[in-house]
Specification:
about 325 residues; alpha/beta; Nucleotidyltransferase, domain 5; 13 strands; globular
Length: about 325
């Protein structure tokens, strides 16, 4: 087994990221394939992509030891059942069974945000820590919680839904989950843009955001972050609102979990130190002192590779525990 590879797979809404990874967490090769949005041919597509890559590399299936895959939505780790993934039309979908049947490899399935958290713990910003909160800020807000080296799944696979901490903003905007005021409506890329647009409509304050909106017809979260870091007044106000609520939410989570690391990933995390330091300022204000002293807030380092690396780690763990 020592010279075999693991397969890590991260199922996204647009693309499926696949990687062959060594037992030591080194990426041998990685690539992407389009996601079948009907959800019907995903496991077949993955199996064909793996076979084609092996042939390209001059290797056989015996080179692969196991496969680990992250999927959106709540997952039963023991059975590999995906309870529901709305965008793919999956409900109580036996992903593990289908993946093993198509690839001929032993498989393990978990939620995609959990996989990213595991990846960061093993080879990324988690730096080997066993107590981590990982939050991903993208189109939505995802999360994974690791305690004593184990991902917390909860009674029905729904633990770590950090983005749906409710009443973060009193009243608040409507969330896709059906509730109002979720963290996702504030700290996601979508939420940042929504709030910036609200602020632009409320006043005629001069801003680079207003200029960009006039020139391009749209503004992005990247615009908001970039202009805030340059001192644009309105953009600074938007990001202060965002980082306050993010720091507040993370502080309340940390007070219950006492983590060593809080890792911020996703597209919004590209704001880097500007985002990290602002979140930390608010986080420290609301944590129990000893909790705040113990927790280091850091930016994720693995980018789009985190999920695949996390998948490989779980696959390796599965083999070890057999």
């Amino acid at each position: 087994m020592a010279d075999q590879w693991l397969v890590g797979v991260d199922l996204g809404g647009t693309t499926i990221k696949i990687a062959f990874i060594s037992l030591y967490g080194e990426i041998i090769t990685k690539w992407e394939i389009p996601t079948d949005k009907s959800g019907k041919t995903i496991t077949t597509d993955i199996a064909k992509a793996i076979d084609a890559k092996l042939e390209e590399l001059g290797e056989t299936k015996e080179k692969l030891a196991a496969i680990g895959m992250g999927a959106p939505g709540p997952v039963n780790l023991a059975t590999g059942l995906v309870y529901v993934t709305v965008n793919l039309g999956w409900k109580n979908y036996a992903l593990k069974d289908h993946l093993e049947l198509e690839t001929g490899l032993p498989a393990v399935i978990d939620n995609d945000a959990n996989m990213a958290a595991i990846g960061e713990m093993w080879k990324g910003a988690g730096d080997g820590s066993n107590d981590i909160i990982c939050i991903t800020l993208g189109t939505g807000v995802g999360g994974g919680v690791i305690s004593n080296g184990e991902v917390i799944h909860g009674v029905n696979g729904s633990a770590g839904e950090i983005g749906h901490m409710t009443s973060i903003v009193e009243g608040g905007a409507q969330c896709n989950c059906g509730k109002k005021g979720c963290l996702e409506t504030v700290a996601s890329a979508t939420g940042i843009v929504r709030y910036a647009m609200e602020k632009l409509e409320e006043s005629d304050q001069a801003s680079l955001l207003r200029q960009t909106l006039k020139e391009n017809g749209i503004i992005t979260s990247k615009d908001v972050i970039e202009y805030a870091s340059k001192g644009d007044g309105l953009a600074v106000e938007v990001m202060e609102f965002v980082t306050f609520h993010l720091g507040f939410a993370l502080a309340n989570l940390a007070n219950g979990l006492n983590p060593e690391k809080i890792v911020i990933g996703g597209g919004v995390s590209k704001a880097g130190e500007y985002l990290r330091s602002s979140v930390e300022k608010h986080f420290k204000k609301y944590t129990f002192p000893r909790v705040g002293e113990a927790a280091e807030i850091t930016i994720a380092t693995l980018g789009n590779d985190a999920g695949a690396i996390g998948g490989a780690y779980l696959a390796k763990s599965m083999l070890t525990n057999y």
